[in-house]
Amino acid sequence: MVKIIVCGACGRMGKRIIDILSQDEDTELIGAIEAKGHKALGTQVTPKVKMTDNLEKIIDGAEVVIDFTNAQASLENLETAARFKKPMVIGTTGHTEEDKKLIMKRAKSIPLVMAPNMSLGVNLLFRLVEGVARVLKGYDVEIIEAHHNRKKDAPSGTAAKLGENIAQALNLNLKEIGVYGRKGMIGPRKPQEIGMHAVRAGDIVGEHTVIFAGKGERLELTHRADSIDCFARGALEASKWIVKQPPGFYDMEDFLGLKGSER
Fold it and tell me: pTM for the complete prediction?
């Protein structure tokens, strides 16, 4: 069995990963991590596992670390994983460009899967929008994402990744053409804009729609998550896969084989 530590064990994703992991014959939870001062520290997660704030103390017995915390905590956990040469799966979002450079550097020493969305369907969508963008050149592109009212970052990491993939397919730079919401007398839409719009309401798990609009027609590609289980299962499957890979940076498209032999 693959021995796993879950960081962010009391979060929505951490809890579901642990629940699903406990029913999986191929994996074993050997550690659960939460932030210092968390009220759950010291409580029993499973008969063999207590909640702790010290990853370094237990990481030696793990084969892979799954992280769904926050941007800063994930970097600290990555530093520990890199020192102990342990593979890692990061589903945390909100990293800065400097953070991402550090993550790529650490991935040279350990196998690392990182994706803003661990859903298998969403990662297929990442590839689909690239193909559509190349074919429907000149079409207006708009991305609409919706999440629950507790989500802190906007746009979602998934929406940003969709925008990045489309921009790359069109040989454009999202930083230069991305437009985030619109208000007031902004003038006509620029031909190469990629619009992004964030909805925050209720308990929406996650919805992403990419609109390609041309003259007299539009194509819409939508992914809706009905529960967070699709993300939890994706992260768990990725953890089983990453322990067999050499050091390097991987995403879910690598895991799904959508890139073929490309790295």
Answer: 0.82
